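Quick note —
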Amino acid sequence: MTENGRRYLPNSRTCFVCGEDNHAGLQQRFFVEDEIVKTLLNPKPHHCGYANTVHGGIVATILDETMGWAANREMRRMCMTADISVRYKQPVPGDVESMVCARVTRAAKRLVYLEGWIEGQDGEVLARAEARFMPLSVEETKLIDEHMVYRDGEERPFAGVGE
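Predicted structure written out below.
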């Protein structure tokens, strides 16, 4: 689905990050703008480590998932994290929306290199990450894709995989 120049990506029902039925999770919707994968982070109080500050593990998780979607799109296969490094620069506030972004910096057959960042409302970078992701097999990708939730016009990153 394209809305305001955003091309939305599918999600799942149970994933901690994008699971629409996972009420303990983040329930994120990912989209693409200018070939950068993005999501708007609106954490709930139970995602905070202490009052009004998003837990560092949640910060790493949202960066990981956002970079994962950038890798998935690049490789046209589901990818998994090989390694990730997060640099926490400022606390991520728990009571205002933050923008999470990711893009591919380099892609090879077996590894995708990515960078991700979280911006506060003033555009200041609150956290940065670098990661490498590995593509899963065609068979694993097809199995995962069968459980994704697609709506009208959403981007189908795995369409034609293995053909």
